[in-house]
């Protein structure tokens, strides 16, 4: 699959071809960086999360369940971040101060470089989990080429 150069980034932990956020035109893998459905958003006019979920036939409740299960399995629940979980956090460079603070709290013995490598590696795992879930539904053809990128 050929990815648009302006729609991918190299990130520590994800390595090559990480998608830019959905709101910036990223592919379905970028759902890993999206907020929890059902809440008004700071960038609500640019948000394409619900549109992408609809395209894949992925219900909001299923999306939430995937993210929250992942959060529990990885000790990513945190009162410091929006929606109570790092699984809903974005990829913005420098992140938000609360995201980074929550990450430092979770990984106190790691350098910031190692923390970000861990964060993006886990975000990649979460992305794959979301697409694997979709692979079992009507949206399978849309995610099949992206799953080959993992």
Overview of the structural elements:
There is one protein chain. This protein has five helices and two strands, in the order E-E-H-H-H-H-H. The chain has one domain. The longest helix has 24 residues. The mean pLDDT is 92. It is globular and about 40 Å long. It has a two-stranded antiparallel sheet. By secondary structure, the protein is mainly alpha-helical. Helices cover 43% and strands 6% of the residues.
What topology does this entry show?
Blueprint: E1 8-11, E2 15-19, H1 49-56, H2 60-73, H3 97-106, H4 112-135, H5 140-147
Antiparallel strand pairs: 1-2
Helix pairs in contact: 2-4, 4-5
Count, helices = 5
Tally of DSSP β-strands:
2
Fraction of residues in helices?
Answer: 40-55%
Largest sheet properties: 2 strands, antiparallel
Compute the average pLDDT.
Answer: 92
CA-based gyration radius = 15 Å
Side-by-side strand order of the widest sheet: 1-2
The end-to-end span amounts to 12 Å
Q: What sequence of helices (H) and strands (E) makes up the elements? A: EEHHHHH
The gross shape turns out to be: globular
Structural class: mainly alpha
Strand content: 5-15%
What number of domains? Answer: 1
The poorly predicted ranges are: none
């Amino acid at each position: 699959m050929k990815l648009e150069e302006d729609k991918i980034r190299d990130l520590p932990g994800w390595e090559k071809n990480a998608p830019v956020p959905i709101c910036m035109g990223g592919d379905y893998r970028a759902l890993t960086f999206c907020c929890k459905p059902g809440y008004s958003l700071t960038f609500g006019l640019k948000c394409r999360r619900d549109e992408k979920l609809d395209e894949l036939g992925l219900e909001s409740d299923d999306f939430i369940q995937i993210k929250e299960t992942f959060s529990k399995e990885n000790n990513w629940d945190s009162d410091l971040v929006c929606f109570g979980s790092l699984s809903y956090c974005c990829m913005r460079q420098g992140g938000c101060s609360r995201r980074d603070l929550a990450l430092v709290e979770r990984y106190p013995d790691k350098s910031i470089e190692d923390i970000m490598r861990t964060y993006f590696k886990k975000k990649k795992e979460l992305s794959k989990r979301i697409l694997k879930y979709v692979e079992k539904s009507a949206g399978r053809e849309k995610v099949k080429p992206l799953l080959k990128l993992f």
